[in-house]
From TrEMBL:
Name of the molecule in the record: ABC transporter ATP-binding protein
SMART domains reported in the protein's UniProt record: AAA
Keyword Lipid metabolism: no
Pfam families cross-referenced by the UniProt entry: ABC_tran
GO molecular function per UniProt: ATP binding; ATP hydrolysis activity
InterPro entries: AAA+_ATPase, ABC_transporter-like_ATP-bd, ABC_transporter-like_CS, ABC_transporter_ATP-bind, P-loop_NTPase
Superkingdom per UniProt: Bacteria
Length: 266
């Protein structure tokens, strides 16, 4: 039985990819329990399996061994209670924003909840942009649309894979504030992948650090700052100290033999 406060449980997640040139050991025995309403980030070196883990949580591919359970039930395919936001907004270029947001409902044979979508568009600052084509919107605005798309089904879990990695620093700050506000309003569980330690610290209750490939859970940091967190906390001594502690921890991860091998294939 799941503990009542553990909504999403990653239980000994291990993943190998079979490729033409052999097996790639992407994830090794990762166990993390995430509570309802919790905001957690996954950080770690490039190629350590963060996306692999998130895809398994979204039911987009299976693990080699171990399992992921939502409310005690193993996930083996896309789940209506889990929304996903990727680094690219992945909007269909030939549909306007409104029709892009209706698309997931069309392919799942459901009627779109137009009111909810309009409300969400207003909420993220996209009010009045429904008839714009994706190319007419900035990267930040496109990413707002993809957040609306993920929230339109009202999932209780939101998975975000480096959603702001391609945005400029100013837009990224704005998006981080927006995510914080949405999280405080909706209290959805958010699992957030980022390369930016300050971003992870700003947003999260907990930051889980994965080791270099094969990804293992190296450490978990609990972030103490009260909410709401204004952007200005990123300028404080306390904030720097937490960021630097996590950075130092990542730099001192022992290098695995796989990583040494990987060095041969940059
Ligand atoms: N479909 C795939 N086939 C083979 N190898 C893959 C595939 N997807 C990812 N990998 C490899 O698995 C490892 C982890 O990848 P990924 O999960 O994308 O890492 P991260 O998101 O942390 O950068 C990397 O070495 C990557 O090259
Ligand atoms: Mg990735």
């Amino acid at each position: 039985m799941p503990k009542h406060n553990e909504k999403l449980v990653i239980d000994r997640a291990t993943k190998y990819y079979e490729t033409g040139t052999g097996r790639v050991h992407a994830l090794d025995n990762v166990s993390i329990a995430i509570r309802d309403h919790e905001f957690v980030s996954l950080v770690g070196p490039s190629g350590c399996g963060k996306t692999t883990l998130l895809w398994s949580m979204a039911g987009l591919h299976d693990l080699t061994s171990g399992e992921i359970r939502l409310d005690g039930t193993p996930i083996h395919g896309p789940h209506p209670d889990i929304g996903m936001v990727f680094q690219d907004a992945n909007l269909l270029p030939w549909r306007n924003i409104q029709r892009n947001l209706a698309f997931p409902f069309e392919i799942s044979g459901k009627s779109a909840n137009e009111d909810r979508i309009l409300q969400l568009m207003e909420r993220v600052g996209l009010g009045g942009f429904g008839n714009k084509m994706p190319r007419e919107l900035s990267g930040g605005m496109q990413q707002r649309a993809s957040i609306v798309r993920a929230l339109s089904f009202d999932p209780s879990v939101l998975l975000m894979d480096e959603p702001f990695g391609a945005l400029d620093a100013f837009t990224r700050d704005e998006m981080n504030l927006l995510v914080e506000e949405i999280w405080m309003e909706t209290r959805k569980m958010i699992v957030f992948i980022t390369h930016s330690i300050p971003e992870a610290v700003f947003l999260s209750d907990k930051v889980h650090v994965l080791s270099a490939r094969p990804g293992r859970l190296a450490r978990t940091f609990t972030i103490p700052f009260p909410r709401p967190r204004p952007l200005e906390i990123m300028e404080t001594r306390e904030f720097f100290d937490v960021v630097n502690t996590i950075k130092a921890d990542i730099q001192h991860q022992p290098k695995t033999s796989n990583q040494a091998l990987a060095g041969a294939y940059p």
